[in-house]
Sequence to fold (141 residues):
Amino acid sequence: MNEKVPDNRAFVLHRYFISAHLMRREFERELARDVNTPTGLSIEGYAFLSLWYAALYVTVEGWKQNEFSDPVVDSLLTDETKLNLLRIYRNSIFHFQPDYWPAKKIGFLKGSETAIWVRELHDAVGNSLLERLPYVLHSGR
Fold:
C-alpha cells in the first residue's frame, strides 16, 4: 500500500478509541438484556461500562496531548467538572478501591447528564478521528 498516512498521531489515538468503542458496544448489548438486579445492569454490563469510560478518558488524554481540535469535541471538553469526574472514575477503575461502590465511581454515575455527555463525547471523538483517517475502512460504527 503506497498511501501516505495523513496523521500518524490520529491513527495511534484511534487505536485507543477502538478499545473504548468495543467496550461501549458490549455495554449496550448488556443494557438491552432484561436483568433482574436493583440497578437493571448485570455485573458484566457494569464491567463493560467501567472499561468504556476508562478507555474513553485515555483517548481524551491523547486528544489533549496531541492538541487536536474539533468544534464539537472542544465544546464538550470545556465542561471541566464532567471531565474531572471522568478522570476520577478512570482512576477508580485502574487503582484498587477498598469500597464496593467508592465515592469516586458514584460521583460520575449519579446524574443522567453525565451519561448523555459521555455518549456525545464518545461519538464526537470517534467522528473526528474517522474524518482524519478517511482511508481507513471501518465496520460496525
